[in-house]
């Protein structure tokens, strides 16, 4: 354990941010899975609705610094491509 006050604070802040980032990443994974589930079920309307929610969550995660903008762009692109490829 750290002895210096500022080091103790950094540990607490790092833990707090790690929890926040973990929750945001988890939410993004959940909405991504919902899009994938709608795709495998073959329900294009549900997939498109889930895609809008997923894009919104990914963008929120990006603005909060959880994901790099290129990573977010790649995720959105892959999801959009999968939904658009549905028959």
Please explain how this structure is put together.
The model has no long low-confidence stretch (mean pLDDT 96). The chain has a single domain (5-84), classed as Methane Monooxygenase Hydroxylase, Chain G, domain 1. By secondary structure, it is mainly α. Helix 1 packs antiparallel against helix 2 and helix 2 (44-63) packs antiparallel against helix 3 (69-84). 84% of the residues lie in helices and 0% in strands. The protein starts with a helix and ends with a helix. The chain contains three helices and no strands. The protein has helices spanning 5-41, 44-63, 69-84.
Structural domain tally: 1
The CATH topology corresponds to Methane Monooxygenase Hydroxylase, Chain G, domain 1
Helix fraction, binned, reads over 70%
Share of residues in strands: under 5%
Number of H- or I-type helical stretches: 3
| Architecture per CATH nomenclature, i.e. the level-2 architecture | Up-down Bundle
**Fourth-level CATH superfamily:** Ribosomal protein S20
From the helix content, strand content and strand pairing, which structural class follows? Answer: mainly alpha
Largest sheet: none
Offer a concise description of the structure:
This protein has 87 residues and is an all-alpha fold.
How would the blueprint of this fold be written?
Layout: H1 5-41, H2 44-63, H3 69-84
Structural key phrases:
single chain; about 90 residues; mainly alpha; Methane Monooxygenase Hydroxylase, Chain G, domain 1; about 85% helix; about 0% strand; elongated
């Amino acid at each position: 354990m750290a002895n210096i006050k500022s080091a103790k604070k950094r540990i607490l802040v790092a833990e707090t941010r790690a929890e926040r980032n973990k929750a945001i990443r988890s939410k993004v994974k959940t909405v991504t899975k919902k899009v994938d589930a709608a795709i495998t079920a073959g329900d294009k309307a549900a997939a498109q609705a889930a895609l809008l929610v997923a894009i919104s969550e990914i963008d929120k995660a990006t603005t909060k610094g959880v994901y790099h903008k290129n990573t977010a762009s790649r995720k959105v692109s892959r999801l959009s491509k999968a939904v658009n490829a549905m028959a």
